[in-house]
Write a structure and sequence with these properties.
binds manganese (II) ion; 14% strand; 336 residues; Arginase, Chain A; nine-stranded parallel beta sheet
Length: 336
């Protein structure tokens, strides 16, 4: 259990056997052409104290394997960082502020180990960072990681909103008594960590869920926005509509956003644990990420289920990096 930002920092920066250090692409040597690899800092007492946004990875497959899925997501955090580091901080003339106005720290990856141990660390890190007002970007791993992360987030915030962008509902019961990549949202609601009425799912696809699971989500007072309806509504609007619905217009209520890469169609994101031929376009996923960044409520963003062994020419990891950059650009332009 971590008791302070200092303790968190000690366990990461001073005990290098604890977290795996992040690896970014080589920083640019041209001062006129900086890249995110020039800006993202490693964890230290000083960098963490100053940080607005903190990135960390949870490199695990175990929850996916328990759910009968294809392993590979344990490689996602490092694959995404490679492409993230190469992007420039300049979001374009349509934005007033750019990513270089943020102070971003990367803690590295939670040490590999039995899934429940990794989850416990993830929950503690989420609590600690949220308590200290840091915006979290967590890189999965399977979708099982949202359960501990949101649990840790909830400890620091009490009442919070939860949005899942996904092709699937992920409300399956445990298997053999164990949590897995398809059960995060059932556990979060059943354990009272998030109230049903504070939860929404966006992008849910036909033939990718059991009717019983759909009915269960609705019976909890949660909101489901099917893929077709979300696309038709124009995604940033759909996102805002869900935000207002789950917070009932309370602009103080913090929101945890989970983004499953399998909500994007497989031609745009082939490197997914469970790819789907139908889904959001790469551009739509990017627009959604910007909208989430611009929202003053969103305090945590996880991106899960990217599976580099199934990727094609880095297409999915590059998209994931663009989505994170879009979220960061949104954060930089909040409240303008
Ligand atoms: Mn999912």
């Amino acid at each position: 259990m971590l008791h302070s930002l200092n303790a968190l920092c000690n366990s990461i920066a001073l005990n290098s056997s604890s977290f795996t250090p992040p690896v970014y692409s080589t920083p640019s040597s041209d001062p006129a052409d900086p890249r995110l690899s020039n800006l993202i800092k490693l964890a230290s007492d000083a960098s963490l104290a100053e940080a607005n946004v903190v990135i960390f990875g949870i490199p695990t497959n175990e929850g996916i394997e328990r759910n009968g899925g294809r392993p590979g997501a344990d490689q996602a955090p490092q694959a995404i960082r490679q492409w993230l580091g190469k992007l420039t901080p300049f979001a374009g003339p349509q934005f007033k502020r750019h990513i270089d106005e943020l102070k971003i720290v990367d803690l590295g990856d939670i040490p590999s180990g039995p899934l429940e141990e990794m989850h416990e660390v993830a929950a503690d890190v989420a609590t600690e960072l949220t308590t200290h007002g840091k915006i979290i970007i967590a890189l999965g791993g399977g979708h099982d990681v949202t359960y501990p992360l949101a649990k840790g987030f909830g400890k620091a915030t009490n009442d919070f909103g939860l949005i899942n962008i996904d092709a699937h509902l992920d409300v399956r019961p445990k298997k053999n008594g164990l949590h897995h990549s398809g059960s995060s949202f059932r556990l979060l609601i059943e354990e009272g960590i998030v109230q049903g009425r504070n939860f929404a799912e966006i992008g849910i696809q036909s033939f990718a869920m059991a009717k019983e699971h759909f009915d269960w989500v609705i019976s909890q007072g949660s909101r489901i926005l099917m893929f077709e309806d979300a696309t038709e509504a124009h995604l940033p609007n759909a996102f805002e509509e869900c935000e207002v619905a789950i917070t009932r217009g309370d602009f103080e209520m913090p929101i945890y956003l989970s983004f499953d890469i399998d909500s994007i169609r497989s031609s745009d994101a082939p490197g997914a644990s469970a790819p789907a031929p139908i889904g959001f376009l790469a551009e739509e996923a990017y627009e959604l990420s910007v909208a989430a960044g611009l929202s003053a409520n969103v305090r945590a963003f996880d991106l899960v289920e990217v599976s580099p062994p199934y990727d094609q020419d880095g297409r999915t990891a590059r998209l994931a990096a663009r989505m994170i950059a879009g979220f960061l650009a949104g954060v930089a332009n909040r409240n303008l």
